[in-house]
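Researcher: Before we compare anything, I want clean individual predictions. No alignment, no superposition, just each chain on its own. First chain goes here; please echo the sequence and then give the structure tokens.
Model: Echoing the first chain and its structure:
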Amino acid sequence: MTTIEITRASDVLPEEEVVALQPIIDDINRLKRERNAIVAAHNYMTPDIYHLAADITGDSLALANLALETEADVIVLAGVHFMAETAKLINPAKTVLIPDLEAGCSLADGITGEDVRRLRAEHPGIPVVTYVNTSAEVKAESDITCTSSNAVAVVESLGVDRVIFTPDQYLGRWVATQTDVDVILWEGSCMVHERFTGAEISDYKRDMGEISVIAHPECPPDVLAQADYVGSTSGMIEWVQLHQPSQVMMITECSMADNVAESTPDTQYVRPCNLCPHMKRITLENIRTSLASLTHRIEIPPDVAGRARQAVTRMLEVGRKD
């Protein structure tokens, strides 16, 4: 069974830790001023980054939209490589940095541009919807991208009876339950979310009594069947803030509960705790180094960038129509 942890707001960042971290936070803030830079942090970042270093926070869609609005010259992406690529795609004139080039994604690594071309050949005329958790190369072979928060709207925006959905099979299966559109799946998955099982969630619910369960749609179907709510990271945050449950089990990457707890102090977060090793490669120390040395710069070949940017822009346009 997965390790379980319980988080309250008072556990997120004890005062002593904040005091100890202040010198590096001061360095980061000074460098941000000097570089006209911002730190964009995903919800899965550790609380020290999320609460002390970040200028904007959110899930993949929120970061994509917020990055469009910034007047900063430099964006440091505290997340994984595909997120930094997405920021560069929609901000081609800006310098986009990722503090660690090895901060990858098992889901993104599981599909290539050649795979998408092969899918198109097998299913001619069927549009390709690609989850943003993919490389720019894969986005460039796609008609439109999506995130977990807008996947259903994106699929339905195409006005077709059938789509190819890549690469996350579980998100695709969930989308298929929410729409009449036929979904052809690529059999990819996230190394964090696929480790949860319906049986372990059922055991926790039995042992803990009355508890709300919210889950990310990258989880397997037997996990989603145990959930009171299924949605993106931003959707889960909104659900907790709206319902204010006394106890909630959050089925997603472990650090997210730390970051949500501050805004919902009366809720106890019970977490079957799976960590993303790629997200945890980003630290305050390498954010400081990234700002100081302007590394590592995200560069995308122009021919790939143009086509990938079109797929991302189409997704953002769907959001603006909602």
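Researcher: Okay. Second chain, same rules.
Model: Second chain and its structure:
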Amino acid sequence: MSKVKKTDEGKAWAKRKLTSRRERRERNIRNLFRIYCEGENTEPEYFKSFPINTETEVFAIGLGRSKTALVEKVIELLQEDGFLENQANYDKDRQLWCVFDFDTNGEKGEREDFDNAIELAHKNGLKVAYSNDAFELWFILHFQYHESALTRHEYYKMLNRYLECNYEKDGKTKAFSRSLYWLLLANQEKGIQNAKRLHESKMTESYCDQNPCTTVYQLVEALNECTKK
């Protein structure tokens, strides 16, 4: 790992701990997941909660960046650590993911930014778990098939009822985020089926027009292949 610049010390991504190649060999690590998220609590804590097997390593972190800015930072970090070497020849045992939302605010250029981010990631051999409009759509789909475009705040209100909490206040904390995998596990297969059906219905549209849509289910399916049996 290259030395962190003094001006970047203390930043979340600068504190990352990536297992060395030698240590991975000693631990017999076969499957590597590098999951870089927009959010700093909900997404990384949720993915880190998957009960993975001893042959798998999951590194998930929130970088506090969105869309193209996130993807550019991820490419920079992965290049520093040598994880983009030969990535064009995709290896399913080395999974490099970006996780971000549209989170539309009506700002100029946000539609192009969202599409560009996904295309830039794919061009560099990265997978994308994107959500339009918000990551919480993935949670909603565990309880119902949903095909109406809503804002993230409307999703929060729905989750208040489904999860019996104040989602915007308490549900986005690290502690609660760690519990989401287990809270939703009984309905996970339903969530996957609903998300896949929704995604397939939107695939002819531009990414920015796919509202609602989420591909988080693809990352969940990949992690499920590496969970303890």
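Researcher: What stands out in the second chain?
Model: Residues 1-17, 20-26 have pLDDT under 50 and may be disordered. Additionally, Residues 30-224 form one domain.
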